[in-house]
């Protein structure tokens, strides 16, 4: 028996990396009975007669997991949003950040294609960068032709399992190809008629890049807060967490309650207006969510 890491799942096979060798394995029937599906990122015990004939025997407890994309044990999320084509969308970025924070995964924000915008738009991106850096996030303004920004992204990857997230067309695959040209991950031109990129990545796979693992995924196909409860939402806004103990009421939702420290920080400019506005939108969304039975 050996221990390894699932780096790819495809057509019922699991590809397990162990000390530089990849073993093609099947899951044991016991997983189906327990309704457990091995995921990319899982640390597993397996037995293999040859590199093509192995069986996964057990799965170590996961630190975290996503349903879509199906992946586990993620250390970091590289969230890519573009300055243009598609235009920068702070609401979508905050949605990604909440989903990542809910899993206690460290985000790294990359604003791509900054070489394709006017000076005015570039200044806007610098303003957004400052807003998120003031919260404590790492933010990189990037273009694939700028080796310095690509090196900066690469420096965050060592010894970590990173999932790359962002809407279609923002340049996720282009960034990975710039970091490691051997990957040659398919990229697709943005469909002008749809105004968005086509999905070019069809399965989850971990690539060994820059001393770590990076998952090129079919994207976060579900950006709904299906698992998140209302009282957990503010925990996904670090700038709220920093002051919310000073709220008068325990369990303050920072909405209609008096003597709320979050609203005081908003009034003094310590909390960005756009972040608070998006928080209220997410509160409404979760409050109006249809119950699941």
Automatic annotation (TrEMBL):
<feature type="binding site">
    <location>
        <position position="260"/>
    </location>
    <ligand>
        <name>Zn(2+)</name>
    </ligand>
</feature>
<feature type="binding site">
    <location>
        <position position="254"/>
    </location>
    <ligand>
        <name>Zn(2+)</name>
    </ligand>
</feature>
<feature type="binding site">
    <location>
        <position position="247"/>
    </location>
    <ligand>
        <name>Zn(2+)</name>
    </ligand>
</feature>
<dbReference type="Pfam" id="PF03193">
    <property type="entry name" value="RsgA_GTPase"/>
</dbReference>
<comment type="similarity">
    <text>Belongs to the TRAFAC class YlqF/YawG GTPase family. RsgA subfamily.</text>
</comment>
<keyword id="KW-0862">Zinc</keyword>
<keyword id="KW-0342">GTP-binding</keyword>
<feature type="domain" description="EngC GTPase">
    <location>
        <begin position="72"/>
        <end position="221"/>
    </location>
</feature>
<keyword id="KW-0690">Ribosome biogenesis</keyword>
<keyword id="KW-0547">Nucleotide-binding</keyword>
<feature type="binding site">
    <location>
        <begin position="112"/>
        <end position="115"/>
    </location>
    <ligand>
        <name>GTP</name>
    </ligand>
</feature>
<dbReference type="InterPro" id="IPR012340">
    <property type="entry name" value="NA-bd_OB-fold"/>
</dbReference>
<comment type="subunit">
    <text>Monomer. Associates with 30S ribosomal subunit, binds 16S rRNA.</text>
</comment>
<keyword id="KW-0963">Cytoplasm</keyword>
<feature type="binding site">
    <location>
        <begin position="166"/>
        <end position="174"/>
    </location>
    <ligand>
        <name>GTP</name>
    </ligand>
</feature>
<dbReference type="Pfam" id="PF16745">
    <property type="entry name" value="RsgA_N"/>
</dbReference>
<dbReference type="InterPro" id="IPR004881">
    <property type="entry name" value="Ribosome_biogen_GTPase_RsgA"/>
</dbReference>
<feature type="binding site">
    <location>
        <position position="252"/>
    </location>
    <ligand>
        <name>Zn(2+)</name>
    </ligand>
</feature>
<feature type="domain" description="CP-type G">
    <location>
        <begin position="63"/>
        <end position="223"/>
    </location>
</feature>
<keyword id="KW-0694">RNA-binding</keyword>
<keyword id="KW-0699">rRNA-binding</keyword>
<comment type="function">
    <text>One of several proteins that assist in the late maturation steps of the functional core of the 30S ribosomal subunit. Helps release RbfA from mature subunits. May play a role in the assembly of ribosomal proteins into the subunit. Circularly permuted GTPase that catalyzes slow GTP hydrolysis, GTPase activity is stimulated by the 30S ribosomal subunit.</text>
</comment>
<dbReference type="InterPro" id="IPR030378">
    <property type="entry name" value="G_CP_dom"/>
</dbReference>
<keyword id="KW-0378">Hydrolase</keyword>
<dbReference type="InterPro" id="IPR010914">
    <property type="entry name" value="RsgA_GTPase_dom"/>
</dbReference>
<protein>
    <recommendedName>
        <fullName>Small ribosomal subunit biogenesis GTPase RsgA</fullName>
        <ecNumber>3.6.1.-</ecNumber>
    </recommendedName>
</protein>
<keyword id="KW-0479">Metal-binding</keyword>
<dbReference type="InterPro" id="IPR027417">
    <property type="entry name" value="P-loop_NTPase"/>
</dbReference>
<dbReference type="InterPro" id="IPR031944">
    <property type="entry name" value="RsgA_N"/>
</dbReference>
């Amino acid at each position: 028996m050996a221990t390894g890491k699932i780096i790819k799942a495809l057509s019922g096979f699991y590809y397990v990396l162990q000390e530089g060798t990849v073993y093609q394995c099947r899951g044991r029937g016991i997983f189906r009975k327990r309704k457990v599906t091995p995921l990319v990122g899982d640390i597993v015990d397996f037995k293999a007669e040859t590199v093509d004939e192995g069986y996964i025997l057990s799965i170590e407890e996961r630190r975290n997991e996503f349903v879509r994309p199906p992946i586990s044990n993620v250390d970091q999320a590289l969230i890519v949003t573009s300055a243009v084509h598609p235009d920068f969308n702070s609401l979508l970025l905050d949605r990604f950040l909440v989903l990542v924070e809910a899993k206690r995964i460290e985000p790294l924000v990359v604003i791509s294609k900054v070489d394709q915008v006017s000076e005015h738009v570039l200044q806007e991106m610098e303003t957004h960068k400052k807003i998120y850096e003031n919260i404590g996030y790492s933010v990189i303004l990037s273009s694939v032709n700028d080796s310095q920004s690509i090196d900066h992204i690469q420096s965050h990857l060592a010894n970590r399992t990173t999932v790359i997230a962002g809407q279609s067309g923002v340049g996720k695959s282009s960034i990975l190809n710039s970091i490691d040209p051997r990957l040659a991950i398919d990229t697709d031109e943005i469909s002008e008629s749809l105004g968005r990129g086509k999905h070019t990545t069809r399965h989850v796979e971990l690539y060994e890049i820059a001393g770590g693992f990076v998952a090129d995924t079919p994207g976060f196909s579900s950006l709904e807060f299906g698992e998140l409860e209302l009282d957990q939402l503010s925990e996904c806004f670090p700038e709220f967490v920093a002051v919310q103990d000073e709220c008068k009421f325990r369990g303050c939702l920072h909405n209609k309650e008096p003597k709320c420290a979050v609203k005081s920080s908003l009034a003094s400019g310590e909390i960005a207006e756009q972040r608070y506005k998006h928080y209220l939108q997410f509160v409404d969304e979760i409050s109006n969510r249809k119950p699941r039975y």
